Input
Amino acid sequence: MAECAHNQMSISCTGDAAIQLIIEPQEIKPGETITVRLVNRGEVDLLTGLPFYVQRRAGKEWVAVPWPKNSAFPLVGIPLPPGGSTKPQRWPIDGVDAQPGLYRVVKSARYEDPNHARPDVLLTAHARFRVRTG
Output
């Protein structure tokens, strides 16, 4: 079974499947960017894609940070073997103004049992970062 622990770099797991979302750095100033990578920490092949979501803490809730109008992620399947990592993606992208506050990134991967002995499993990990005042 995959080892499951929770910390600043969130790990989500079930059975033999586990993902870890890594954000670097965990603190930025307006105008700077973070990079986001998803790592397969489990023992089975996973499938992920390019989309990830950013949320900003507003009181006790997480609120979606909108992407610029007319922006989109290509819908491609990215194989993620055990120990594998996605290529780094950056945020904010052009057209997004990151205001000071606490944020989190949310990204998912899917485990598809090749023998169809159990239903597909969707794993969703999130990790926090902070935008500080310039």
